[in-house]
Specification:
about 140 residues; Arc Repressor Mutant, subunit A; single chain; mainly alpha; 6 helices; 2 strands
């Protein structure tokens, strides 16, 4: 098997996929994923945890949190155990927004999988799991 040729084919296809994702404003995407992270963890997360989880600077996280707070989707409070730290919690509106966003993402993914057909959809899911596992192995190196 010619893995170089396969790699080149994959890389040629990626710009089309990336252009679809770019249609969402980068700041908006950051807010969506940050809010999802805060909600998934039930709140009580620090900006440092968010920075580590997404491998972005603390300044970028601060800007994102400012936007979410202005929209009433999160609150920030001083950590009672260590007043130097801030804790981020979702508001009820933030929790609902995260749920709506998740449902929309699932619906769009369902449609893509449906269009692939049963066999290809199952193969894609299997390969995504495998790629995730390989990527996780690489993080430990």
């Amino acid at each position: 098997m010619d893995y170089q040729q396969l790699a080149e084919e994959v890389l040629r296809s990626l710009p089309v996929l990336r252009s679809r994702v770019r249609r969402l404003d980068e700041g908006f995407r950051r807010e969506i994923f940050t809010l999802g992270y805060v909600v998934k963890h039930g709140g009580g997360v620090s900006p440092g945890e968010i920075s580590s989880a997404f491998a972005v600077s603390s300044a970028r996280v601060a800007v994102t949190l400012n936007g979410l707070e202005e929209k009433g989707l999160i609150t920030r409070r001083i950590d009672p155990a260590d007043r130097r730290h801030v804790i981020v919690d979702p508001t009820p509106a933030g929790t609902e927004q995260a749920a709506r966003t998740y449902r929309a993402m699932v619906e769009k993914t369902q449609e893509i999988l449906r269009r692939l057909g049963d066999e290809d959809a199952q193969a894609l899911v299997r390969l995504v799991h495998k790629l995730s596992a390989l990527a996780s192995e690489g993080e430990g190196s």
